[in-house]
Structure formats: C-alpha cells, structure tokens
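Researcher: Next entry in the queue.
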Amino acid sequence: MEEFFEELSFWDAELSLKGQYAEFTRKRINPLQRKEEFPTAIFDQIIPLLEQRFGPARPFKCVEIGSGPVSNLAYGVDIGLLDVTAVDPLAEEYARLYEKHHLEDYPVKPVAGCGEILDRMFGEETFHCAYARNALDHTRDIQKTFRNLVYVTKTGGYVILQHAVREGSRNKWAELHHWDLDLVSTGLVAIDRKGRAIPLMAGCPLEFAIVTYQSVEHARWMDIVLKKVAGIPSYRVSFHPLLRIRAVLSRWSGMER
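Model: Structure for this entry, 257 residues:
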C-alpha cells in the first residue's frame, strides 16, 4: 500500500539521520541520549502506582502499538524498568532497515501485528501498561484497537496515549492519518473525515489518571493516561483521585512519530 511505502521511506531517511526529525532519531539511537526521548514525566508518576498495585518486581510488562523501528520506550528497557513488546504492521520491513542502518542491537524491535488483533495475539490482562504514541489515529478500526489496549492491560494498570490533537484533518487525511483524536466533556473521542465522533471510552472500565492537553490553538498535543478499574464506571467520565490535569499553552516542538 502506498501509505506504508511512504512510512518506510520516512523511517529509512530518519535512520540515515537525514530526515526531518534527525535530531530526535539520533537521540533514540544513541544509548547515552535515549532518556531525552523517554516519556519520563509520565512514568515517574505511573511506576510508583504500579509498584503499589503489583509490587516492586521489575521490569513491568508494556505493550506498544505502532512503535516504528525506534520506540521511544527503549530507555525504559535499557534501565530494566520496562519489558516492552512492540507491535507494528511493518515489523518485517523494519528488520531490513535495522540491517541496512546497522541497528540490529536496538533494544525494542516490533513483532508483526496491529492494534485490531491484539486480543488474538495476547491474553486478557497480560500487560501492566499499554502505550501508543501517534499511532492510535493511524489504525483502521480505532474503536476495536482502543478496546484491545484496555483488554490486554491488567486491572489496576494503565493505558498511556500520547497524540497530536486532530492530526488527521491537519494533514488532510494523508498517509496513515485516518482519524482525529480529541478530548471533550464525554472523554476521548475519535472523529472521522466526515465529522462523525466515536466516544472511545464509552463502556470501558477506565478512569482518568493523568491529563495534559495542549489545544489546536497552541501546541496540538495531549498526554492521556487512563487507569483500568474493576467494572465499568457508573458515569461516563470517571476521575482517579490522583488525577493530574495540566493545561499547557506553550509551544511544543519535537518528533511526532
């Protein structure tokens, strides 16, 4: 498919350090700089909660969808914090890029698959956390993928989403951009190119744990961390007692993939 060819071309350029985001790709590749790309602010808050719920034994098991060839969770693997299972439909093609760019020892290599079949790849409540960075809006069946992220996450674990706000429409639905993602009064929603909204959290046993939202008028980015709870909340949007909400108005700059 053309969109996958464009994705491979993007990563081929990035791994050669000649792409648009070469500065950030270099940091992911270099073990001494990977920490700068790791979502430290989120995991510094989540890890103590995981330890309270599951005990201090590390690494915690994490599944990541749409990781690309150089997951930004690699630093967590390097320090023994996380055991990351990355899933990406282009995993076999990325294996050839590892060889081409001499990255065979990268600590997070994806297996072939996609979010729509996570429930067939892994058992229920397999992982302590599930992670997606600018990947959920690339899926064909976003509702199925979201529910699968919840399905494979343990009760008491976390679904961690880092995404650009309304990235699909901003990119005119080009390449892999199939959906807009946004946060509204009823929770996280996916919006298709016809403007139809899907309330992703409806019927899911989730509550907000961390929310950082930067609107389309500013930096267009959101970090959403959802805790999986026992049973479905009695109202549409539930908030964890340790909720952290931060409205950020400063300009965000960084690698979006």
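Model: The chain has eight helices and eleven strands.
Researcher: Noted, moving on.
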